Amino acid sequence: MSTEGGHEYSVQDYRLADFKLLLPLGKGVRVLVTELRVDAFLGHLAREVGSIDRVSCQPTTEKRGGEPDPSGRERSLAQPEGLYDLILTNNPRASQHLGPGGILCLFFDHPPEAAPDGLTLIGRWRAYPGWPAFRVLIPDHPAGWRSAVQSFRIFPSRSMAGLCTRILPGLARWFAPSCGIAIYQRADTGQTQVDNTLSLLDRSLCASQHSEWPGFNPAAWMLVSGRLGEGNPILAFNMDAKGYPRRLLKAARYAEGQHLALEAAQLRQIEEALGPRLGGRVIRPTASAQVDGRWALAYEFVPTSPFHGLRWRLQGRARFCMTMAEWLAQVGCMTRRQDSIEAIHQRHLQPLDRLLGRKVLPPEAHAMAQAAYQRLERQSERIPTILEHGDLGIYNIRLTAADGSDFRVIDWGSSTFDGMPLGDLAYLLTSARAPTSLAVQCFHRYLQIMGLEVTDAFGLWCCYLSRRWEELDQIRPVDPNDPTSGGGILLPVHAQVSEYLWEMAHTP
Fold first, then answer.
1. Rounded CA gap, 83 and 104, in Å?
2. Domains defined along the chain, listed by start
3. CA proximity to 350, closest of 457, 466, 460, 494
4. Are 425 and 461 in contact, with CB atoms under 8 Å apart?
5. Global pTM value
6. Angle at CA 396, nearest 5°, toward 391 and 402?
7. For residue range 42-101, what is the model confidence (pLDDT) as tens digits?
8. What is the C-alpha to C-alpha distance for residues 4 and 111, in angstroms, rounded to an integer?
């Protein structure tokens, strides 16, 4: 782990380079990297540009990490050679090496007040919670801060920043870190608009829906990083002049990735399987496009009511959790099938067997999971296979009715038709911080609709847990000395679900 600006980050974190959608990418782009204090992102960017010239005018405080340059086109020079299409630097004076129409990406600790000579400011973004370990790049203007506070709620609601910015959104710029990036362009026959990767994707997506492209304003886009993995997308939200998000663009982190193409195909299958009544709660993309090998999906932005507050606690949470339990059970009934015993063992029981073999669960939880495994093994022919979302936290839910009676579900990239009953519901209830009594009611209702036994519940959850554990081990680094690394991040979730299920098993 490395530290910059008080924020820890790992050089293996793919989010370090997620600002790249704001840059011109391509094999013909000539890049200069000079006077960078932190360049850990470069390993995740190198394979998407042409040549990279590194000029070390002063030592960097952190050596580059991430992936090695697979192209072999990076070289170290004593001085820049000629003019460049793209310059990455902490020093605005490096712009003297920028060619006509070229882009300067300036990393700053405090927002610069003036543009370097001969350059036009394209946009400025502040990094939250910090640089380079940012999760959100917020456009540094009133509409951007309003959107960050009101639509994305970047500050905890009970914090001083959350309370103050709820009243006056403009105060967000004073509570947020002062570091970030500014992008400038050198004039080229009057051109002032950057032709970056995001604009190319947006043009292709809009062209598939409308006859005319409405144009591209870089400063109207907020970037949000997905999870750590290479296959997780970069999220770009387009805002209107008042800061209200209008649409979402999900772009693949790398051009060769096929995850979003597979997700779009999966969503079509889900819509066909569920039909209009159940599928109406699934948010599907409005368009898809591929530009220079990079896939992107476009969605209409669906506002959400908050999953907190007095109304949520007194009314919304109970109604939402029960409505969700019934909907998930109906989805399970609609998509259930009975696989062979061999397929059930391979898909559901073997991951649990491997998890038990690693002995990473606490002793009591291990003993309970072992007993559940033995029970499911004896009765594996009773386990149905269903459609499973795979990551059903409230962060993937849009609460479209504040009283909890209606919702929409997003981010089906982890979904599978080879899923396990109960797992999505159990994970969701912990995410919503459902009280134990409410969770028990939801479990009973779900099992009743699905026609499953209460005694099967713990085993079903353990199978779901073990599969997700293995998936997260591939995304998050595993530290043998840290039980919460990799899939171990699910240990608190497992503890809460175990409490729910224990109470259900001992409730008459």
1. 12
2. 2-195 (3.40.50), 310-505 (3.90.1200)
3. 466
4. no
5. 0.87
6. 135
7. 888 988 998 899 997 654 444 454 444 545 578 889 999 999 999 999 999 999 999 998
8. 17
